[in-house]
Amino acid sequence: MAALGTRGLAAVWWDKRRPLERLALPHILGFLLNVPSRVALGPLRLPLARPHWLGVRRLGATFYNLDSKLAAPVAIGGEPQLRQFLREALVPAASELFLVVPRDVEEAGTWLRPE
């Protein structure tokens, strides 16, 4: 997260009790998700989970899943599909979401739409 600061960016923690419709997507550059990931030893999957970070970024009108466990970026779709993707990713209790925003957006709080 400190690396973002060197680029004039900030990571804002998202309280997942808020509805995702409150995200002001035009002001958000990307997302960092921390999700539980199953542990595997070759073909054997263990009943353990450990934290895994993945990124989501918009290019044009399409959001992409930039998970390093994928062979290539995967298109999520537009804003409705992104909100559904995030909703599903945040179901596990251990999941966390951070918004990547310019520092001025963080300071003004414009990453959050008014109720």
Alpha carbon gyration radius: 15 Å
Most strands sheet: 6 strands, antiparallel
Distance between the termini: 28 Å
Strand order of the largest sheet: 1-6-2-3-4-5
Q: Tell me, what's the shape?
A: globular
The number of helical segments is 3
Question: Roughly what percent helix?
Answer: 10-25%
What series of H and E elements makes up the topology? HEEEEEHEH
| Arithmetic mean pLDDT | 92
What's the β-strand tally? Answer: 6
Extract low-pLDDT stretches: none
Note the beta-strand portion.
35-45%
Which class of secondary structure composition applies to the elements? alpha+beta
What's this model, at a glance?
With 115 residues, this protein is α+β, with helices and mostly antiparallel strands. Helix content is 18%, strand content 43%.
Description:
The chain contains 3 helices and 6 strands. The chain has 115 residues and is an alpha+beta fold. Strands 1-6-2-3-4-5 form a 6-stranded antiparallel beta sheet. The two termini are 28 Å apart.
